[in-house]
Amino acid sequence: MKRLHALFSHSALALAQGALVALLVVGLVVGTAFAARGGNGQGGKNPNGGSGTLTLQMAYDQNGNGAANWSDKVTFDVSTTSTEKPWVSLNCHQNGAWVYTATVGFFDAYPWAQTFTLASTMWTGGAGSCTATLYMVKSNGHQSTLGTLGFAVGA
Predict the structure, then answer these.
(1) Confidence (pTM)
(2) The total number of structural domains that make up the chain
């Protein structure tokens, strides 16, 4: 009976990990597909070399301490004149392992919420570190980084 329970537990864990990987892949593919539709009203050219800034903002601060913690929701103030359709990707690590990724469009026509929840099925608690990357998609489909922001996430 214990062996059967262990087999089912292991199978459930393997399925959960497989589902997370599939979800991450789909998110990256969908985000890239939407990003490819971007532009800056100038045929995707970036005449000034491209730059921008990101400022971390709390969208939902569970414990009210004003700092990013696990399971809080964050967003960014984005500033750039390089494109009308800037994108922000957020990648987070915990103890050297990649535990979170998401991409959000920071322009009016973007149809979903412009927030990031600092948690995932691979990041179930604890502190971590994140890097936000502000970028644009050029007419050739390549990304051009406009700015980055690293920040710590408390437990």
Answers:
(1) 0.69
(2) 1
